[in-house]
């Protein structure tokens, strides 16, 4: 009988402790997705399509960076609508990365932001980003902006994400001043 009374008393004390700890919890944090920005993010106006000559200059700068580091890359440049303008597959570059480089360039142009933004978002738990049409959450896609207007994008693939990004930045530097 004493054991039964002791058990009931312990259960009652445990329930009281749980109720108290719940009452002392910090208030819930607001959902960051509920924040309404004053201005539209990544609101870069579309400009005229990048010329073939400029696209090739972007590719040559990116390829030079890759060669300097002995990296084998696929490098794609698209226009402001995401259409392929120029492409280079360096000798020995991974075949699967041909389509990936084009995909990165297309996403950077159509979403007007670096593909690294999607990578960072997914890594921080914003998994809904993966449901957006055509998104690739891997760095190496960078918009090309001339005179404040988006004229295209570069996409690089063949190495790690950080290697792809280094090569893409070297190419983008030709027009992104």
Our Rg estimate from Cα atoms comes to 25 Å
Query: What general form does the structure show?
Result: globular
> At the third CATH level, what is the topology name of the domain at 52-172?
Beta-Lactamase
* Annotated CATH architecture of the domain at 52-172: 2-Layer Sandwich
Number of helices: 5
Rounded mean pLDDT is 89
Structural class: alpha+beta
- Helix fraction, binned, reads 40-55%
Q: Quick one: biggest sheet? A: 4 strands, antiparallel
Task: State the oligomer.
Answer: single chain
Q: Determine the strand fraction and express it as a percent band.
A: 15-25%
Compute the number of strand runs.
Answer: 4
The CATH class designation of the domain at 52-172 is Alpha Beta
**Low-confidence spans:** none
From the N-terminal CA to the C-terminal CA, the straight-line distance is 84 Å
Full CATH superfamily name of the domain at 52-172:
Haem-degrading domain
* Strand order in space, largest sheet: 2-1-4-3
The succession of helices and strands, N to C, reads HHEEHHEEH
Describe the structure.
This protein has a domain of 121 residues: Haem-degrading domain (Beta-Lactamase, 2-Layer Sandwich), CATH 3.30.450.150. The protein is built from 5 helices and 4 strands; from the N terminus they run H-H-E-E-H-H-E-E-H. It has a 4-stranded antiparallel beta sheet with strand order 2-1-4-3. A hairpin with a 4-residue loop joins strand 1 and strand 2. Helix 2 packs across helix 5. The longest helix has 22 residues. The mean pLDDT is 89.
């Amino acid at each position: 009988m004493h054991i039964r009374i002791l058990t009931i008393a312990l259960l009652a004390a445990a329930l009281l402790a749980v109720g108290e700890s719940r009452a002392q919890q910090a208030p819930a944090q607001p959902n960051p997705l509920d924040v309404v920005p004053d201005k539209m993010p990544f609101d870069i106006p579309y400009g005229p399509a990048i010329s073939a000559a400029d696209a090739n200059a972007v590719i040559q700068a990116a390829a030079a960076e890759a060669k300097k580091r002995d990296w084998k890359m696929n490098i794609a440049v698209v226009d402001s609508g995401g259409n392929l303008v120029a492409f280079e597959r360096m000798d020995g570059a991974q075949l699967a990365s041909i389509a990936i480089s084009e995909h990165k360039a297309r996403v950077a142009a159509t979403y007007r932001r670096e593909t690294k933004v999607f990578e960072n978002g997914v890594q921080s738990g914003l998994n809904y980003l993966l449901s957006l049409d055509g998104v690739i959450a891997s760095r190496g896609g960078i918009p090309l902006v001339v005179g404040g207007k988006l004229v295209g994008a570069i996409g690089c693939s063949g190495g790690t994400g950080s290697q792809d990004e280094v090569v893409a930045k070297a190419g983008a530097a030709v027009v992104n001043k």
